[in-house]
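Thread amino acids onto this structure.
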């Protein structure tokens, strides 16, 4: 554990003070699991090749984390891709990428499990391994190196990055990983090659090093040759969905999908011909609605979230959706918890559902029509109903929503210019219908238009992507005829989006000849290719040229149905014959209804025709609990409690907005009767004093909490303290009159202790610079603000300061500062610290603690 402790300390001292968002690397979140590494047989790190905010939002990550840690002999930890600022510091100081739980470098684990969520994360996969001190090429790893295991949607065609992986899981990770880990515990002592051979015998496990692509003299792929004893094809493994996490992790940092997520079912009944997720996750496996309800309510209690969400490919198709939502909203409205749906089909979004989910507050509404014309909708197997489509969207505006998001694509097979222009007609019809229904507010539509990318194991896997020049023309034509009420998100960075879609298509249909391209692009600096401000297409162009690979052959060429496909040796459930049949039906604009709407099976190959479709969820029988009508909300709170708290240790790296969310969730977990405001978006009555700068500790911070029911202040403090992490501690609580002035009005300064590294010349420099301020009429310094760098006078903000005496001459130098914010352009404490450090000083090495805050009078602080 000593090396792990050192890694944690190095990150705290060297990395965290110098990065934009240090909370990404803290760990220690609510419900985090930590075990003694010496007491387990297998150590696993679950790695997500994107930043914390993205990876934390992925439900599969949470499922695997709790599932693996439920096994006493396994300890699963987490790691995410460090942002570019952290990577620069790590490489400059030779600091390895470490797990959040124990600070262990990735090379110290038995197994590294990497989520392959999308193709544009491949450069980050290589970077994760390299920063974790693991050879990026599987063939270069020794017996002591971890097994690198991949899984997720891109496992459908992992060939471009296959050489980075020892093993790849096809299908449901929670069905395969526990068996893989158990088997590995019995074969770990074998030579690495034999160990992999044994593990490749597990159903759903693909070992790329035992499969060798064959090419003709002309460069065409002629087949994939498997070594003796290896299965061909390698079949995916799916099972009925296992238990959802009962105590999911709660992040400190605001994440992309910051809410409780509950999965209604796996798979999709719709059969959209472009959709890889809908094909490879067949058959549909619905969860029992009673299990879903009990899980969601229990998890809300364990986490303190204020919003819940159903995550499935098409949540509106869940057979028991309406009775389930009706029951849940009766309970959630009492708790001021909103319910949202990430993406819906307009034809399954019923008026009753709209009425129910608006009871607490209106969450976002997102719909994915994908194609504008009815003809093209038939091609992609969307079931067109344009009138119902427009009416439902308009009804949302009439019910009080002022924003709806719509997702479309251009470049779909058989698409013509008039199909693209039909998107604008859809938008206009929705807006016209909204006005006819007398929408309460001016309706707005966020329109997202992406370029079609052909994906493996779909009916459109043989299709060519639309060349970028043609895609540009169609997008420009669409932008020219859109109404003003439609915010068109694609047009802002059109060239960049076109290049990213092109690269995604190349990688999605690529083979192992792209491996040198990946290595070269990553070596030259490719990172975070799905991020607009980080994507550098010129690096990829150069990498293709140096590797002698023509990317157009992967993206822009229509493939023959007789060709050998790079992923042909991987069976993801749906047969090649079915995909070919669906492609032909697309050409004739023939719809294929979902399995539940006809008596016979389509024989797609995903399930036994005799037992397909699988039975839907049973009718919902509401759990026997009393459901009360929500009490009318009070205009004012019944009691207001003023609390003091400290913010120390790692929590000093938590931003103020994230601290507010932390307290909101803690209050919910403590089941305090918090008062909520009235209106469309009720907010808890929680008010804070002036925020601390990022990285600064505070020993006497303040917050006010309004309650609807009187409680003993000491009881409120005790209940909250039990729900707060190490580093946040309440110190006092008292009731205050309801009309007491706000904390912001009662605090105009604070006392700070500034600590500088202990050198004799530092104390002399501090005395000199402090004296210069006292003698000068003003002292202008540069200060960073939201508007950029500005010049401020630090003298009015310094009411008093002194160097405190120390017993040891080599000890750190401590400055006590009385700082005022009463001046209209008060200088920040950080600006004063930078001034004291001097032009060559390292302000990051100085530490600052706010020891008190309040109203300053005659050089003394009065607490609020």
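Threaded sequence (864 positions):
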């Amino acid at each position: 554990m000593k090396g792990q402790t050192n890694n944690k300390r190095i990150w705290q001292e060297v990395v965290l003070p110098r990065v934009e968002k240090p909370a990404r690397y803290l760990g220690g979140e609510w419900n985090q699991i930590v075990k003694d590494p010496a007491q387990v047989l297998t150590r696993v790190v679950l790695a997500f090749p994107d930043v914390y905010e993205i990876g934390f939002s992925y439900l599969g990550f949470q499922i695997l984390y709790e599932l693996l840690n439920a096994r006493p002999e396994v300890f699963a930890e987490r790691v995410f891709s460090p942002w570019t600022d952290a990577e620069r510091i790590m490489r400059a100081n030779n600091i390895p990428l470490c797990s959040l739980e124990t600070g262990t470098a990735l090379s110290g684990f038995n197994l590294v499990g990497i989520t392959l969520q999308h193709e544009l994360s491949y450069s980050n996969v290589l970077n994760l391994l390299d920063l974790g001190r693991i050879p990026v090429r599987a063939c270069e790893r020794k017996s002591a190196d971890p097994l690198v295991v991949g899984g997720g949607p891109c496992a459908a065609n992992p060939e471009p990055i296959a050489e980075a992986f020892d093993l790849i899981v096809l299908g449901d990770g929670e069905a395969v990983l526990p068996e893989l880990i158990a088997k590995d515990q019995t074969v770990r002592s074998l030579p690495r090659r034999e160990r992999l051979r044994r593990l490749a015998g597990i159903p759903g496990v693909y070992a790329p090093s035992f499969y060798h692509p064959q090419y003709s003299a002309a460069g065409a792929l002629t087949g994939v040759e498997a070594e003796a004893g290896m299965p061909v094809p390698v079949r995916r493994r799916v099972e009925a969905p296992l238990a959802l996490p009962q105590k999911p992790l709660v992040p400190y940092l605001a994440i992309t999908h910051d809410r409780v997520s509950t999965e209604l079912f796996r798979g999709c009944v719709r059969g959209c011909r472009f959709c890889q997720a809908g094909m490879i996750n067949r058959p549909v496996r619905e969860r029992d609605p009673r299990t879903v309800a009990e899980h969601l309510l229990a998890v809300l209690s364990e986490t303190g979230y204020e919003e819940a969400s159903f995550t499935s490919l098409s949540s509106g198709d869940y057979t028991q959706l309406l009775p389930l939502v009706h029951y849940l909203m009766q309970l959630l409205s009492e708790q001021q918890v909103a319910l949202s749906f990430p993406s819906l089909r307009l034809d399954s979004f019923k008026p009753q559902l709209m009425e129910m989910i608006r009871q607490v507050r209106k969450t976002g509404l997102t719909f994915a029509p994908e194609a504008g014309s009815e003809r093209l909708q038939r091609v992609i197997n969307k079931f067109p109903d344009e009138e119902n489509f427009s009416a439902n969207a308009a009804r949302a505006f009439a019910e009080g929503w002022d924003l709806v998001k719509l997702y479309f694509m251009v470049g779909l097979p058989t698409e013509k210019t008039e199909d693209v222009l039909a998107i604008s007609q859809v938008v206009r019809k929705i807006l016209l219908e909204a006005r006819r229904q007398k929408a309460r507010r001016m309706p707005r539509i966020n329109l997202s238009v992406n370029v079609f990318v052909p994906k493996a194991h779909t009916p459109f896997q043989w299709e060519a992507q639309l060349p970028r020049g043609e895609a540009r023309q169609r997008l420009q034509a669409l932008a020219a005829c859109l109404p003003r009420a439609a915010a068109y998100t694609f047009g802002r960075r059109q060239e960049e989006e076109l290049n990213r879609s092109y690269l995604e298509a190349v990688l999605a249909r690529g083979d192992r000849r792209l491996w040198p391209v990946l290595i070269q692009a990553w070596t030259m600096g490719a990172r975070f290719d799905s991020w607009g401000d980080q994507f550098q297409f010129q690096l990829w162009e150069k990498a293709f040229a140096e590797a002698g690979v023509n990317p157009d052959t992967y993206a822009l060429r229509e493939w023959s149905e007789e060709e050998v496909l790079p992923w042909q040796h991987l069976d993801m459930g749906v047969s090649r014959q079915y995909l070919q049949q669906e492609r032909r039906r697309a050409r004739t604009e023939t719809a294929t209804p979902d399995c539940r709407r006809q008596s016979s099976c389509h024989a797609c190959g995903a399930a036994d025709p005799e037992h397909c479709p699988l039975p839907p969820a049973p009718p919902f029988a509401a759990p026997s609990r009393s459901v009360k009508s929500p009490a009318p909300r009070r205009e004012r709170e019944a009691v207001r409690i003023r609390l003091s708290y400290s913010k120390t240790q790692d929590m000093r790296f938590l931003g103020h907005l994230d601290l507010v969310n932390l307290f909101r969730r803690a209050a919910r977990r403590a089941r305090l009767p918090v008062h909520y405001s009235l209106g469309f978006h009720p907010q808890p009555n929680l008010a804070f004093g002036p925020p601390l700068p990022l990285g600064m500790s505070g020993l006497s911070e303040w917050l006010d909490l309004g309650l609807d029911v009187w409680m003993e202040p000491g009881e409120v403090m005790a209940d909250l303290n039990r729900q707060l992490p190490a580093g946040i501690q309440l110190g006092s609580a008292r009731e205050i009159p309801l009309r007491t002035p706000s904390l912001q009005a009662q605090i105009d300064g604070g006392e700070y202790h500034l600590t500088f590294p202990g050198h004799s010349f530092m104390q002399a420099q501090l005395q000199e610079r402090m004296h210069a301020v006292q003698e000068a009429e003003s002292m202008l310094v540069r200060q960073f603000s939201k508007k950029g760098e500005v010049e401020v006078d630090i003298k009015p903000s310094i009411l008093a300061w002194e160097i405190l005496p120390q017993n040891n001459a080599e000890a750190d130098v401590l400055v006590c500062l009385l700082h005022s914010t009463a001046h209209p352009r008060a200088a920040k404490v950080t600006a004063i610290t930078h001034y004291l450090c001097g032009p060559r000083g390292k302000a990051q090495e100085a530490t600052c603690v706010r020891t008190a805050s309040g109203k300053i009078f005659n050089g003394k602080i009065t607490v609020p």
